[in-house]
Amino acid sequence: MAKDSTKTTIDADGLRYRSKAPGSPFAATSSFGAATMSCFLCGKHRPRAMLKSKKLLGKSQPVCAPSCKELEEQLNTKG
């Protein structure tokens, strides 16, 4: 299966993509607690309040609390 080839051109102002929104989805926040981090197990970005530290591979890593599956179910039922 071949991918559809997309042709992009560079505009005079140097931008290549027109449909992509500018900026980062992980905007800088003023408070440290409101920042997001990725879960070491599932890789999803969560607010720090939804993560806990767990010792994995000899180091403390941020993981979803209580677990990735339970947190995802809780978020799906709320929204």
Protein described:
- It is a single chain.
- The strands form two sheets. This protein has a two-stranded antiparallel sheet. A two-stranded antiparallel ribbon has the order 3-4.
- A hairpin with a 2-residue loop joins strand 3 and strand 4.
- The protein has one helix and four strands.
- Helices cover 14% and strands 23% of the residues.
- The protein has one helix at residues 68-78, and strands at residues 36-38, 45-47, 51-56, 59-64.
- It starts with 35 loop residues before the first strand and ends with a helix.
- It has 79 residues and is of the alpha+beta class.
Secondary-structure topology with pairs:
Elements: E1 36-38, E2 45-47, E3 51-56, E4 59-64, H1 68-78
Antiparallel strand pairs: 1-2, 3-4
Distance between the amino and carboxyl termini: 37 Å
Per DSSP E runs of 2 or more residues, the count of β-strands stands at 4
The strands making up the biggest β-sheet line up spatially as: 1-2
Mean residue pLDDT: 79
Structural class: alpha+beta
Q: Which spans of ≥5 residues are poorly predicted at pLDDT below 50?
A: none
Counting copies of identical and different chains, the oligomeric state is: single chain
The major β-sheet equals: 2 strands, antiparallel
Query: In percent, how helical is the residue content?
Result: 10-25%
Q: In DSSP terms, counting alpha (H) and pi (I) runs of 4 or more, how many helices?
A: 1
* Percentage of residues in DSSP E strands: 15-25%
